[in-house]
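UM00103-like protein
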Amino acid sequence: MVTPIISWEDDKTVVAVVKPEEGRGPDEVVPVAVGKEEEEEKEPPLTAPDGGYGWIVAICQFLCNAATFGNVTSFGVFLSFYRENNYFPGTTDIQYAFVGGVIVAVALVISPLSNYLGNRFGFRAPMIGGVLLYTASQFAAAFSRTFWELLLSQGIATGLGIGLIFIPLLPILAQWFTKCRALALGIAAGGSGGGSLVFSIVTRASIESLGLRWAFIVNALVCFVVLVPAVLLIRDRSHLGSKHNTEPLELKWLAHPGFVWVWLWALFALMGYVFGVLSVPTYAVSGLGLTQTQGANLQAILAAGQMVGRPAIGLVADRIGRINAAMTFTFVAGFSCLVIWMLAHSYSVLILFSILQGLTGGTFWGACAPVTAEIVGVKDMGSAMAMLWLVSVVPNLVSEPIGIALVNYSQQLGMQGTDAYRIGIGFTGACFVVGSMTLLGTKRYVQGNWRIWQRS
């Protein structure tokens, strides 16, 4: 007689049956594992290594950001040269500012295309294409003779190249970290500050010694040499099962009850950031009557502050909570505008403001990825951030023109010197403060309560 013996092991039903075969005693049993489901046992979820090769990926992303957004931030050097020398006759200040806005706006608006290409060909293919297009666009800008040629080359083509390089990066780095995710993403984001510091100096020196055309060519060659090895060394973890959703366009994120507050934060924080970063040197020269060298020094201080501030914000965020850190430092950026910049009548006070603004003004760029991962999870991070980049197009495109329009309006009212910037500075500070307040909605979604002091 065959007698089944039933037991349970690790939540699996184990049926042991007597199988009287030749050479086996009548009381010997053969265990046969029959799961509660017919599927094979799933592998345990993959955990992020929180280090290892992930730090190499972080350094590579630092270099990518330095050679892309770092180079773009030095647009202020080109802007000064265009305006001082009337390089493209008939072009207005707002048109020049529009070129700078178009670069970032186009880079962000192609996020669905970048995600599609990444899904279709792998993340490295669009990045390599972006490096080639980005390099070619700077060579084309070197030979621009009209404003429209400049807009197409230094504006639109440069933005396309940067978008193809930048968009695939953040979800990849997030796969490598859990506890230190904000720090790693902050280090990567700090590359834009480091690049801005280097390129603002290199660009100004190249223009003064070699001329505008060679300044573009030198920048193009430097970017190419930095980007090629960085792109080739980046690895993702999808081959180990760390899959992530990079669907090109999922509109559900616009109405997500937790994520809606994140993109509202992006709208307001970036409106403040763009005008603040690009206008400080102009305020120094036009408002206070300082020299071009002093204005360039302030730009360098802002860049150095970003390089230090973004990793530092990431380090703090990993300890007090990603949303808490984003909200706090965004508020500090606005407070520094309303209290320090608004009252700045000397070079020394502007230096203090530049340090604080450099450390905190770019909080969005360093914190947007870890905050997004906190809301939607790492798996859906790429898809959600594609929508976040689309929303971010608006402030990047219109912030600087709005700021210049406010300065022009103030001058029409008879305000001169620093007074002409008062309305614009107030607008900048208010945008930062409102942006920080929107993140209270995100805290409410994550925590289920309104306790501001709770870690989240």
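thats it. The chain is about 70% helix and 5% strand. Residues 1-45 have pLDDT under 50 and may be disordered. bye
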